[in-house]
Amino acid sequence: MASVQLEQVRKVYPNGHIAAHGLDLEIPDGEFMVLVGPSGCGKSTALRMIAGLETPTGGRILIGDRDVTTVPPQDRDIAMVFQSYALYPHMTVRENLAFGLRMRGARQETIDRRVEEASRALALEPMLGRKPAQLSGGQRQRVALGRAIVREPKVFLFDEPLSNLDAKLRVETRAELARLHRRLGATVIYVTHDQEEAMTLGSRVAVMRDGYLQQVAPPMELYRRPANQFVAGFVGSPAMNFLPGQLVSGLLPTPGGELTLGIRPHDVEVVTPGAGTLDAWVDVVEPRGSELLVYLRLGGNHAGPELRAVTPPDLAIEPERLVGVRFDRERLHWFDEEGGSVDFPRTLP
Length: 349
Description:
Oligomer: single chain
Largest sheet: 6 strands, mixed
């Protein structure tokens, strides 16, 4: 396997659109790096530049110690898995798995060994003789994964490979990918728009927006210490609450301008109204099995700012009722007028 490094990588299209603004990213050998962000943020463009399917306008891309910025895709020793399965319909599963190795002139004993290992790892052994039309969507995606695995490349690139699967299969295939990465020790770069997928799979996660890297960190660091308001709002489900400083006037010092208070729904406690609490009107209660998602209106009336809270499932709470709320003082986040994270104040007085 090998490390991957992007040094001031830019991509400007002929129409003037800038898809990547000087990306600097170092991915150590064996890391599972996830690029995540909304549509149009530049994550797929970054992956395609690493693969050699797009040529950077500026900067360098290194795989290991080798500068591959202008090297053709077939000479980069990478394997890419796309959202579409791209299987050969007239070939069996075994033939699809072996095709790339055969085209590279691998010996038959090497082909047989790698196909057997990949099919065993992905539970494809019972279907090696079938053709793609006889497989489910999840099985086809596993074949596409297996075709990449048998090549034993330096780097695996995944471009939203689970998007075509239903919710149950996505969860199962995510677990398979995590197990495979642990077993192979492979360098993986994985693109997704799904922040839950990013948080569960990545050793580190790179959050992108409008062609810029916003933050690169382990999943829980993104969740607990977001670099800015965009990352704070993008990472985590349900999304973080954002409240302008005036809403807690008298408690919130705002030297040098307004601040926005961020608090995650899991860090909001719903209690009986009283001293030391903020009044809130219960708008909607959504049972989620292991928890309740409660939509509140601050100020005790229908017109107040919305606040979401996650509570235990057995909490006796109904819509159209007045309650009190408390914030976990150690879990408050503050953002300036430009959306940047600020350290002061970390807690309410």
